[in-house]
Amino acid sequence: MTDSKYFTTTKKGEIFELKAELNSDKKEKKKEAVKKVIASMTVGKDVSALFPDVVNCMQTDNLELKKLVYLYLMNYAKSQPDMAIMAVNTFVKDCEDPNPLIRALAVRTMGCIRVDKITEYLCEPLRKCLKDEDPYVRKTAAVCVAKLHDINAQLVEDQGFLDTLKDLISDSNPMVVANAVAALSEIAESHPNSNLLDLNPQTINKLLTALNECTEWGQIFILDCLANYTPRDDRESQSICERVTPRLSHANSAVVLSAVKVLMKFMEMLPKDLDYYGTLLKKLAPPLVTLLSAEPELQYVALRNINLIVQKRPEILKHEMKVFFVKYNDPIYVKLEKLDIMIRLASQANIAQVLAELKEYATEVDVDFVRKAVRAIGRCAIKVEQSAERCVSTLLDLIQTKVNYVVQEAIVVIKDIFRKYPNKYESVIATLCENLDSLDEPEARAAMIWIVGEYAERIDNADELLESFLEGFHDESTQVQLQLLTAIVKLFLKKPTETQELVQQVLSLATQDSDNPDLRDRGYIYWRLLSTDPVAAKEVVLAEKPLISEETDLIEPTLLEELICHIGTLASVYHKPPSAFVEGSRGVQHRRIPPRAGSVESAESPEVGQSGSSEAPPAVIPSQGDLLGDLLNLDLAPPTATVPSVQPSMQMGAMDLLGGGLDSLLGGDIGGSPSMGAGLGAAPTVMPAALGGAPAVGGGLGDLFDLGGGVGMPTGFYVVPKTLWLPAMKAKGLEISGTFARRGGIIQMDMSLTNKAMSVMTDFAIQFNRNSFGMAPAGPLQVLTPLSPNQTIDVSLPLSTNGPVMKMEPLNNLQVAVKNNIDVFYFSCQFPLSLLFVEDGKMERQVFLATWKDIPNDNEAQFQIKDVHLNSDAASNKLQGSNIFTIAKRTVEGQDMLYQSIKLTNSIWVLAEMRVQTGNPNYTLSIKCRAPEVCQFVYQCYEMVLKN
Amino acid sequence: MIGGLFIYNHKGEVLISRVYRDDIGRNAVDAFRVNVIHARQQVRSPVTNIARTSFFHVKRSNIWLAAVTKQNVNAAMVFEFLYKMCDVMTAYFGKISEENIKNNFVLIYELLDEILDFGYPQNSETGALKTFITQQGIKSQTKEEQSQITSQVTGQIGWRREGIKYRRNELFLDVLESVNLLMSPQGQVLSAHVSGRVVMKSYLSGMPECKFGMNDKIVIDKQGKGGTTDDTVKSGKQSIAIDDCTFHQCVRLSKFDSERSISFIPPDGEYELMRYRTTKDIILPFRVIPLVREVGRTKLEVKVVIKSNFKPSLLAQKIEVRIPTPLNTSGVQVICMKGKAKYKASENAIVWKIKRMAGMKESQISAEIELLPTNDKKKWARPPISMNFEVPFAPSGLKVRYLKVFEPKLNYSDHDVIKWVRYIGRSGIYETRC
C-alpha cells in the first residue's frame, strides 16, 4: 500500500466521504482519512470544513495520528478560532504527559496556533515546560517563547518569560542554550534598544563553552549572536577569536562562514602589529577556499561573501587567484561571481595568468558570461598598467573573431582604455573602424562614435564616418544621438573648414527635429557656444578630461562595513543592507565594526570609521548627469555595474518638513539636466523662435564660466566663518558646511560641499522649506563638475526673499533640502538677521522721531552689549557696513547716544538707540520695532558685528 | 529564519508544503512556481527575491526543494539545511523522487516538524532521528527508552546512542579522492587540486574513543623534531601538505586546532569523517596530449594520446576520454589502439572507453571529423577534453598511519578491532584544453 494514492482522489462529494471516515470507529480508517485530508491540504484544496471532525481525532494515543491532526490544526486554526478552542484541553493535557516527546510536541504545536484565546491557555504549560526536567522539552519551550512573542509580545513580557529565557543561557544542556540564544536574538531584533541580549564577558564565556558541544545548527545560532557583541578591549577580542578559530574546520559551511564573520569583525579591534593578527589573517584563507568545493548553491553564497571580504581585506586571498578560475561545468551564477573576484584579485604578479584565462572565457557559449569576460579584460588593462598593452592586443584578437557581441563589448572597453591611457593605443583605431557596420547595440555605437570624435584629427575620413551615422539620426537611441552631436562638434572644432555643413546639420537635427529635451538643450548650448565664442567652445568641449581610476565598482565603505557584519546572511548575498529587503522593524539596526583599539586614524575621523583601509580612496569614473560632464562626454557609463543603490534608511522623520516643496524638488526639471537651457531667452539670432516654450530657465550661461562671481567682493558685511551644517555621516558621505553673506545687496549662501563617499556625486539641487522671511534660492545650485571622492567644492548660491513665508521657530531658522544622485538630505541652519538689512535702510530724522514715538513702549527691548572696546564713531562705521545706519548722534554727560535705523527685506523698520559711555566697554542698546520678535535677533547682529 | 519549506515536482505541482512563519502566505508557493520553475529563462541564481520574499532552492533530479523567508536569514545555513534535508530523506526512503515523496509524505511532514522548529534547524542526525521517527508508526517505549531518546537528541553526543553492541568489532576506512586538473594544450598545469574524503564505516561496541592519524606534514614535522634524524628523512618524503580540512561534528575541533590530533567518538555505521584539500605534489594519474588540426573548412583532424603515470603494478579502471566535436559535425571516423571509441552525435563528442590500463603505458586515438559548411561567423568554442578514471591509490599521497580505538568500559582493546583501509582515486574535473 502506498500513500501516493491520496494525491489522486479528485471525485466529487469527497468532503462528505471524508467526514464519514473521520468519524469512523475504526482507528485505521480514521488515520487513513486524516492522511487524505493532509494530502488535500498540501495540494491547496480547502478542507477547512472538516475542522470539527479532525479535531475530534486529536484524543488518541497514536502519536503518528496526533501529529497529523496537529499539522492540520496549525494550518486552519486561524480561520476557525472558535473551533480551535476545542483543542485546548488536549494540548494542556498533553503538556503533562509522562512522555517527554509528547510534552514537547504539545508545546511546540501550541505555539504555532496563532489564536489569541489559545495563547492565553498556553502560558501556564509553557512556564512549566521551560523548567521541565527533560532538556528536549526545554529546548522546544525556548523556541516557543519566540513564537509567542511573535503573536503577542506584551504577553511574553508581562508573564516574565524573557527572564526565564535568559536563565536558559546558563542551562547545562548545550542545545537548550543554543535555542535560547536563537530565540533571544530574534526577540531582541524587534526591540532594538532593549538590553535583552545582555552580552557580558560571563555570558560570552557560557556561549563559547556551549559552542564546543552543541549541534552544527546551534553553533550557527551562537556564532551569529556572538557577532553582535562588542568586546571591551583588544585582549578580550583576541581571546574570543582564539576560541572561535577551531570552527573554521567544521564540515558545515554555514558554521565556517559565521565564524569568519565573527573573526572579520573582531579582528578590526586587534592592533595590526600583533603577531596574532598575522596568524589570524593566514588562518582565514584556507577555509574560504574550501568553501569553493561545496555544492554550487553554497559556492554561490560563499563567493558573494568572498567578494566582500576581498574588498575589505584583499591581503587574505591575494595568493589564491587560481582557485577562482572558472570551471567549464560551473553553473553560470558561480562563473559570473568567480569572474568578479578574479578581477578584484588581479595584480601585476598574476596578470598574465588572469589574461590567459579571460581570453579562454571569451570563447565560451553563455553570452552574459562572455560579455563579462571581455569587460574584465578591459578592467584589467585599467587596473594593471603594465598589462594594458597585452590586454589591448587580446581585445584586438577577440575583435578578429567577428563574433558580434564580443566585438561590441570589446569596443566599449577599449574606449575606457583610451580614457585611462590617452595617446597610447590609437594605432588600433583602424581595426575598430573596420567593424563599424556590425555594431548594433547603442552602447557600442556610442563608444565607437566617441572614439571617432575624440581622435578626429587622426582619422582621415572621420567626417565620412560620422556622416554615415547621421543618416539614421532619428532612429538612434538617445545615448548615440548625444554622442554623435558631441563628436561632430569636436570634429568641427578640430577641422573647422571641411565640416561646417556637417555641424550645421547635426545642430539642426538635435535642436529642431528632436523631442528629447536633453538632446535639444545640449544642441543649443553647443550652438550658442560656437556662435558666440569659439575659443571658449574649444576650451569647454576639448578640455582635458580627468583620469579614470582602476576600481570601478567598489562598494561604498560604510555599506561594506555593514555587510561585513552580515557575512553569511542574505544581506551579504544581495550586497544590500537588510533594511532594503526586510519589512518592518527587523534588521533595520545598522551593524558596525568596532573601532580598533588605540587606532589613530579612526580617532581622527570617527564618522568614517574606516580604520582598516584609510588609503586614499580611488577615484571613480564619473557617471552621467551633470552639465560639464555632459559637454565633455564623460557620461558613458562606467565599464561595470554600478554600486548597488542604498535605500533611504535614516532621517525618514524629516520627510514631511518640506511638504509640497519636496515634490517640486524631486520633479523632473531638476532631475534631468540642471542649469540647462539657461538664459536662452536672450540668445542670439541663431536661436529659433520655438524656444519660447522651452522648459524653465535658470541662471545665465555666464554662470558656467564665472563660478560664483561674487565671492570675495569687498564689502563691510561681516561674514560668519563656515560652520558644519550637514555631517557626512547623515548624508551618505556628502558634507556641507556653510555661511551666509550679503554682497552688493544680494544675499548669498556660501557652501562647501565635500564628498566623503567612494563614488562620484552629481546632479546637485537645492530647495528651502518655507521660512520667516521668504528666502528662496534665486537660481539653481551650480555644481558643474561631478564631485569626486575627497573633493571639496565651494559654491555661492544667490538667494531671493520672494519665496513663500511661514513663521519659523526660531525666527531665523532655515530648513534646507539638498539632493544629489544618491539621495535627498535635510538639514537646518540659522542665518544672521543682518543678512536681511537692506542698503536703503537710512531713515529721515523726522520720520525716525515720529516712528519712535509711534511705537508703543511695550515693544521696546533693552540689551547690554558687553566688552566692546570701540568708540562710538568706530562702532557706527562698523555697523554701517552691515546696513545699520546711524541717523543722529547726541552727547549727554559724556555719554554718546546713537540713533540708528534698519530696514528688513520685508520692509519692517527697526529703530535703535545705542548708549556708549567713554571708558565703559558696555553699551546699552534699546530696540523698538513694530514686530518685537525680531529685536532679539537684531541684538545678536549688533553683538556679532561689534565684536568681530 | 526559514519561513516555509516547499517541495515541487518538475511540473511545479506542490508535493509538500510546510509553513513555519506567519509572514509567509499561501501565494508564496505560487510565486516560486511562476517565477522560477516556470520561468521562461533559466534561473541564474539559487537565491531569488520575489516581492520582498526570498526563495532558496536546490534541485535533486527533477524535484525542487525551496525554502522561503522574509527575513535576513543566514543564507549558508539555509542551503546547508536543504542539503541535510535531502540526506535525511534519502536515508529514510532512498532516492528523492516524486513517487517516493508522495509515498512518504506523512513521514516527511513528521520529519519537518522535528528538524525545523519555527524555522530554526534542530538536530538532524539521521541516527538520532531514526530512534523515534519511524515509518512503522511509533513503538511503545518504556520510560527509560524515552528519556534515552531525548537525551540523545539534545545531548553532546547527539550522533551516537549508548548501548551499541557488536560481536565483532570492525571498522572500514575509505580514502576517496577526486583529482581535478586543468591543463593547457601545451601541457602546462593551470590548476590542480585534490579534494578528498575519509569515509568511515564503524561497527564498534559501546562509546569508543578513536584517534585517527595520517601522514600530515605538520604532525610529522613536529614529531620529527623529537625523533632521530633518520625518521625525519624517512617520513619527510612521505608526508603531505594539507591545505585545509573540515571534520564531521563528532571531531573535537578545539583539540585539532591546538594539537592537530583528530580524536572523536564516531557515529554508528557509515559517515564522512573528514574532507580535505591538497594542491602540492599531486600525482596526476593521466596526461592527455591533444592535437587538433583544421584541414580546410570542412574537416578536422584530432589526435589524442593518453599516458598513465603511476606504478606499473597498479591498474586504472573505467577510463573514459571525452573529445568534444563541433556542432556542425556530419561524420566521424575513429581509430583507436585500445578500448572502444564512438561518436555520440547527441552529446557532440567522441567517447573513448578503456576498461583497464596499467601504469606507465600509453595509448592513442585519432579521428577525422567531417564538418558541414556553415556561414555561422561564430567560431567553435573548443571545449576542453575531459577524462574519467578510477585508480587504486590516493593521488594526494595521503596515507592512513593509524586509527586507534579505546573503549575503557568494555573489554575489547585496539588490537581486537578488525580494520580495513582502502584508497580510491577518481577523476574530478580532469580537463585538458585543446
Automatic annotation (TrEMBL), chain A:
Membrane topology, as annotated, equals: Peripheral membrane protein
Ranges for the Clathrin adaptor alpha/beta/gamma-adaptin appendage Ig-like subdomain domain? 718-828
- One GO-annotated biological process of the protein: intracellular protein transport
* Signal peptide feature range: none
Annotated GO molecular function terms are: clathrin binding
Q: Where is this region: Disordered?
A: 585-622
Q: Pfam families, alphabetically?
A: Adaptin_N, Alpha_adaptinC2, B2-adapt-app_C
Gene3D superfamilies in the record: 2.60.40.1150, Leucine-rich Repeat Variant, TATA-Binding Protein
For this UniProt record, the keywords arranged alphabetically read as follows: Acetylation, Membrane, Protein transport, Transport
InterPro entries to which the protein is assigned, alphabetical: AP_beta (IPR026739), AP_complex_bsu_1_2_4 (IPR016342), ARM-like (IPR011989), ARM-type_fold (IPR016024), Armadillo (IPR000225), B-adaptin_app_sub_C (IPR015151), Clathrin/coatomer_adapt-like_N (IPR002553), Clathrin_a/b/g-adaptin_app_Ig (IPR008152)
Beta-adaptin appendage C-terminal subdomain domain segment(s)? 837-947
Subcellular location, principal? membrane
* Entry GO terms, CC: clathrin adaptor complex; cytoplasmic vesicle; endomembrane system
Q: Where is the protein localized? A: Endomembrane system
So which domain of life are we looking at? Eukaryota
What family does the database annotate? Belongs to the adaptor complexes large subunit family.
Protein's recorded name: AP complex subunit beta
Taxonomic placement? Eukaryota, Metazoa, Chordata, Craniata, Vertebrata
Automatic annotation (TrEMBL), chain B:
Q: Which domain of life is it from?
A: Eukaryota
SUPFAM superfamilies referenced in this protein's UniProt entry, alphabetically: Second domain of Mu2 adaptin subunit (ap50) of ap2 adaptor, SNARE-like
InterPro entries found in the cross-reference section: Adaptor_comp_med_subunit, AP2_Mu_C_sf, AP2_Mu_N, AP_mu_sigma_su, Clathrin_mu, Clathrin_mu_CS, Longin-like_dom_sf, MHD
**Which Gene Ontology CC terms are recorded?**
clathrin adaptor complex; clathrin-coated pit; plasma membrane
Q: Which Pfam families match?
A: Adap_comp_sub, Clat_adaptor_s
- A GO molecular function held by the record: lipid binding
Detail which positions bind a 1,2-diacyl-sn-glycero-3-phospho-(1D-myo-inositol-3,4,5-trisphosphate): 340, 342, 344, 353, 355
Q: Which UniProt keywords apply?
A: Cell membrane, Coated pit, Endocytosis, Lipid-binding, Membrane, Protein transport, Transport
GO terms for biological process, alphabetical: endocytosis; intracellular protein transport; Wnt signaling pathway
Give residue ranges for domain MHD. 168-433
The record describes its membrane topology as:
Peripheral membrane protein
Q: Where in the cell is it found?
A: Cell membrane; Membrane, Coated pit
How it assembles, according to the record, is:
Adaptor protein complex 2 (AP-2) is a heterotetramer composed of two large adaptins (alpha-type subunit and beta-type subunit), a medium adaptin (mu-type subunit) and a small adaptin (sigma-type subunit).
UniProt lists the family membership as follows: Belongs to the adaptor complexes medium subunit family.
Q: What does this protein do?
A: Component of the adaptor complexes which link clathrin to receptors in coated vesicles. Clathrin-associated protein complexes are believed to interact with the cytoplasmic tails of membrane proteins, leading to their selection and concentration. AP50 is a subunit of the plasma membrane adaptor. The complex binds polyphosphoinositide-containing lipids.
**Do you know which PANTHER family this protein is assigned to?**
AP COMPLEX SUBUNIT MU
Q: What is this protein called?
A: MHD domain-containing protein
